[in-house]
């Protein structure tokens, strides 16, 4: 049974910081790209930040300079450090992972989501 499970999130005042973590567990060969997405009420899910197995990162323009994505290959985890939070960062944040379930065959897995609320 493969699982992708987030932790962290919560309520914070504008200007504050939060850290999200995500761990993939179960039986798989390796993990390709990992990422964080967010979805605000009434909006579609959108990319916040991604990181490849080689450590290359990509950020949404709205979070550049404020958020940092990192991963621990050995622990199958990805983290998102969120600083200088704004009310518009309020959303449910989802962890995404590409898991190699068979040699060179990667499948997409999502976490259940964790709420981040930034008060003004």
Q: How are the SSEs placed, and which strands pair?
A:
Elements: E1 3-8, E2 10-13, E3 18-25, E4 30-39, E5 46-51, E6 57-59, E7 67-72, E8 77-82, E9 91-102, E10 105-110, E11 114-119
Parallel strand pairs: 2-11
Antiparallel strand pairs: 1-3, 3-8, 4-5, 4-9, 5-6, 7-8, 9-10, 9-11
Helix content percent band: under 10%
Largest sheet: 7 strands, mixed
Strand content: over 45%
Shape: elongated
Counting DSSP E segments of at least 2 residues, the number of strands comes to: 11
Order of helices and strands: EEEEEEEEEEE
Poorly predicted runs are none
Structural class: mainly beta
State the distance separating the first and last CA atoms: 41 Å
Instruction: Give the count of helical stretches.
Output: 0
> Average pLDDT value?
97
Radius of gyration: 14 Å
Quick take:
The chain is 0% helix and 61% strand. The chain has no helices and eleven strands.
What does this structure look like?
Helix content is 0%, strand content 61%. The strands form two sheets. Strands 2, 4, 5, 6, 9, 10 and 11 form a seven-stranded mixed beta sheet that branches. It has a four-stranded antiparallel beta sheet with strand order 1-3-8-7, with no helix packed on it. By secondary structure, it is mainly beta. The protein has no helices and eleven strands. It starts with a strand and ends with a strand.
Q: Which features would summarize this protein structure in a list?
A:
mainly beta; single chain; 120 residues; elongated; seven-stranded mixed beta sheet; 61% strand
